[in-house]
């Protein structure tokens, strides 16, 4: 049995009497400790898929198992950390206090909150060690997103669900963020499901890239990224890296309607 397992999952939304079929018979399995990206055209159901895995949205049919349990049970057991497009930080709390938030929200958790040093180490990994005691409101958008990522890795949740976490950032910050995420993931190796529109990011970070077709979302291809780890910026220049990018682009172009 896989760590995350979806069998024949479909989802339809209804709004003002109109039905939208977002996902159609999705079969997907993800192994523990893997970094898996989901890429596909706008509106193909990537966020829906992520939200179904995390128990935020219920599928209409099919089965979702997280380590053998339903997403809602997994959610109750604090198995998920969410990293949305913009991080939900409390502006008047310090960076460290924001990092401690998952443990305050989850008071019944048996797990002890990490020591300050552990959280500071995570902040250092995202280049924010010296901002530990700064107020969140003093940070730029990119810095806040870095806190959101560090917080997810420090939260104790074994599965991180990331929905286009870099989409609000400028291109240069975005590129830098992808290396920070690579570094922190290679140190912690949590299971990550990462929704993105960015092919470079998907190849750089992933063990596997799932390519979806336009709505209703189906899985069009799964590409295992067999690049050595730890990975670095130089790897992007390699022929193998460029070939993965070209392969993914070719799949996505099949659905272009020009
Ligand atoms: N709550 C909802 N009510 C009605 N329709 C919805 C709802 N959520 C999503 N949809 C529709 O379902 C389809 C899939 O949406 P979803 O957000 O999952 O796609 P996506 O691939 O993440 O899109 P994007 O890349 O643009 O963020 C879209 O057509 C969207 O309009």
TrEMBL record:
<dbReference type="GO" id="GO:0005524">
    <property type="term" value="F:ATP binding"/>
</dbReference>
<dbReference type="Pfam" id="PF00005">
    <property type="entry name" value="ABC_tran"/>
</dbReference>
<dbReference type="InterPro" id="IPR027417">
    <property type="entry name" value="P-loop_NTPase"/>
</dbReference>
<feature type="domain" description="ABC transporter">
    <location>
        <begin position="4"/>
        <end position="239"/>
    </location>
</feature>
<dbReference type="GO" id="GO:0016887">
    <property type="term" value="F:ATP hydrolysis activity"/>
</dbReference>
<keyword id="KW-0547">Nucleotide-binding</keyword>
<protein>
    <submittedName>
        <fullName>Nitrate ABC transporter ATPase</fullName>
    </submittedName>
</protein>
<dbReference type="InterPro" id="IPR050166">
    <property type="entry name" value="ABC_transporter_ATP-bind"/>
</dbReference>
<dbReference type="InterPro" id="IPR017871">
    <property type="entry name" value="ABC_transporter-like_CS"/>
</dbReference>
<dbReference type="InterPro" id="IPR003593">
    <property type="entry name" value="AAA+_ATPase"/>
</dbReference>
<keyword id="KW-0067">ATP-binding</keyword>
<keyword id="KW-0813">Transport</keyword>
<dbReference type="InterPro" id="IPR003439">
    <property type="entry name" value="ABC_transporter-like_ATP-bd"/>
</dbReference>
